[in-house]
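Entry 0007
Protein: DUF1638 domain-containing protein
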Amino acid sequence: MIVCCGILQKEIEHLMQGREEILYLDAGQHVDPEALARSVTGALKGINGTNIPLVIGRQCAPDLEKLAGELGARVIRAGNCIEMLLGDLLAEYDAEAKTFYITGGWLENWRKIFVDGLKWDEIDARQNFGFYDRILLLDTGLTPIDDEKILEFYDYTQVPIEIRPVKLDNFRKLLEEIIDG
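Output (structure tokens):
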């Protein structure tokens, strides 16, 4: 059994190809670290076992590693889902411009995350996203990229959105490490 954030569900399912049973947590919960910690706690307590792989970024909830250790789980070696996908490329892309990163899963869930979760209206969004030069949509090829959703997200943020294809090599390596560990 693996416990994962739902934001990378398509990528995880593609890489795992049914080899493990997977429990997905709601992708919008990371906007409330305490709710995410409660959800992780509930999921791990509901699983009968130890050494359970937890595919949630270490930065997504305070004290996630401590919590995981107390509940018999191990956390993937990455700060967040973007780092899981990009690995060392993250620093290279950061050097190009002030960048906010999203995945296909983020694009599918942006309203749940920003509007419902953080309660940001368009003014809040523009103030918070105004720091960035671009939004970089990491395209793994597994989630269809809908032009209308990109335009809606652009209208909300007013920040140019670039699409960059990414391979799953780094994520595959991290998943193998946590599962085999």
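Curator remark: DSSP finds nine helices and seven strands in the chain. The CA atoms of residues 53 and 179 lie 6 Å apart.
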